[in-house]
Specification:
Rossmann fold, Elongation Factor Tu (Ef-tu), domain 3, 289 residues, alpha/beta, 6-stranded antiparallel sheet, 13 strands, elongated, 2 domains, 25% strand, 5-stranded parallel sheet
Length: 289
């Protein structure tokens, strides 16, 4: 198995779904340990690694990598899940961490599991580290108000519309970062043109409703915005939910461009309106919230 680094490495292990404060504690430990070692992340590309556990993923793989890169680690080893899923724990430690990644230090959360059928835990990892010459650093849980920060807890908060608390656990506002897709363009007819962004299959969708948000364009410009998350029965999106965002003070064509929408506060559930006037009046109120 070809080595990916001639220099010893400090490896952060995990799926890092959400790159929340708990994950960042693992990443930061790898960075602090690096010295003459190179910091790397071991993770998986496939979103079904998460969805097979019965949970939808928080962020797509490309977003996770971008966010991890901003934390300071630029190098990733991301094999296809099928390449390693049948490895026992000892083989993973020897062939992947020792031989492939040249690991000197390995960092993970205390609940990290590995090997076929997730049969091994951090104690097994420490044993294999002693055998193959790498040190294991098990990172304690990060707590907020006595609650362990985890992807599971953040999923619950997002599904309940508790966006401000979810943002606190994430360490930054929850983001929708997708290309703008074509919609029915109905918003233009009532003076509130919007952009549409689809959630991906198996991606967790926050509680349907209207959110105060901030939108950042590719050029770095930021705008106050309103985002409605829900379904659009008038447009064929293959049953996928979407985020529809009105960007206050912006005019222009964003189709096909990646745009970041950050959710800040949950304002209200979805509502049905009897008239266009009632809808426009409510949107005006939402903007003032």
């Amino acid at each position: 198995m070809n080595q990916i680094s001639d220099m010893p490495t400090a490896v952060a292990l995990g799926v890092f779904d959400g790159v929340h404060l708990g994950h960042r504690a693992v990443l930061n430990t790898a960075l602090q340990l690096c010295g003459e070692k190179i910091p790397w992340v071991f993770t998986f590309r496939q979103e079904d690694v998460i969805s097979k556990k019965g949970a939808d993923f928080l962020y797509p793989f490309d977003m996770r990598c971008e966010m991890i890169g901003k934390c300071g680690i630029k190098k990733f080893y991301c094999p296809a899940f099928e390449e390693v899923r049948h490895m026992d724990g000892r083989t993973f430690a020897e062939e992947i961490l020792h031989q492939k990644m040249n690991a000197a230090d390995v960092c993970c959360g205390k609940n990290f599991r590995f090997g076929e059928r997730a049969a091994c835990d951090v104690h097994n990892l420490e044993q294999f580290g002693n055998e193959f010459g790498f040190r294991v650093h098990v990172i304690d849980d990060v707590l907020k108000d006595g609650i362990t920060i985890s992807s599971t807890e953040i999923r619950k908060l997002l599904l309940n519309g508790e966006i401000e608390k979810a943002n606190l656990y994430l360490g930054e506002p929850y983001r929708i970062w997708q290309e703008v897709t074509h919609g029915a363009q109905l918003g233009r007819t009532i003076g509130f043109p919007t952009i549409n962004q689809l959630f991906r299959e198996h991606q967790l969708v926050p509680k349907f409703g209207v959110y105060a948000s901030e939108t950042e364009l590719e050029d770095g410009r930021k705008y106050k915005s309103l985002t409605n998350i829900g379904m659009k029965p008038t447009v064929n999106y293959q049953g996928l939910p979407l985020a529809e965002t009105y960007i206050e003070g912006f005019s222009g064509d964003l189709y096909g461009q990646p745009v970041q929408v950050r959710l800040l506060r949950f304002l209200r559930p979805e509502m049905k309106f009897n008239s266009v006037q009632a809808l426009t009046e409510q949107m005006t109120k939402d903007l003032q919230s």
